[in-house]
Amino acid sequence: MLIRTFTEQDWSQVWPIVGDVIRAQETFTYDPRMTADEAYDIWVETPPGRTVVAVDGGRVLGSAKMGANRPGPGAHVSTASFLVAADARGRGVGTALCRDALTWARDQGYAGMQFNAVVETNRTAVELYRREGFDVVGTVPGAFRHRTLGRVGLHVMYLEF
């Protein structure tokens, strides 16, 4: 598996992953009716942010986007989001994407990384982020409307560099 910078040609493989994840309404706060064009505008970061893909041969297994968490006085803290194709989960793709984002953020001189909305029932993600050193610094109760579980909390997670 190789992690590389996203190119326009990758969107045809990234969009189905994005679409599947948001329509599932289990882990992402994006509108499940979002179009490919709307998703592109949200997912693909412009510099100084960065979007990457994890590929195996010619197949995109997942994608990540990263950049400053907030502008201005908050721009010293980074953020990132990750998506992995359903049939590629459990193979280390998410871990590799997370580690890539952390390396990038450190290399860019950020003071830490903050995740603003980790669905508390997304145990795989929460456990991965904890393994990488993140802590849950707060939980907004009932802030995510899970498709099958109803309202569940959203964790704010942080790792100081």
Description:
It is a single chain. The chain is α+β, with helices and mostly antiparallel strands. It has one domain: Gcn5-related N-acetyltransferase (GNAT) (Aminopeptidase, 3-Layer(aba) Sandwich), CATH 3.40.630. It contains four helices and seven strands, in the order βααβββαβαββ. The radius of gyration is 15 Å and the shape is globular.
Question: What is the name of the CATH architecture?
Answer: 3-Layer(aba) Sandwich
Task: Give the assembly state of these chains.
Answer: single chain
Note the overall shape: globular
Number of strands: 7
What does the main sheet amount to?
7 strands, mixed
What is the ordering of alpha helices and beta strands? EHHEEEHEHEE
Helix and strand content put the structural class at: alpha+beta
- Overall domain count: 1
Helix coverage percent of residues? Answer: 25-40%
Assign the CATH topology: Aminopeptidase
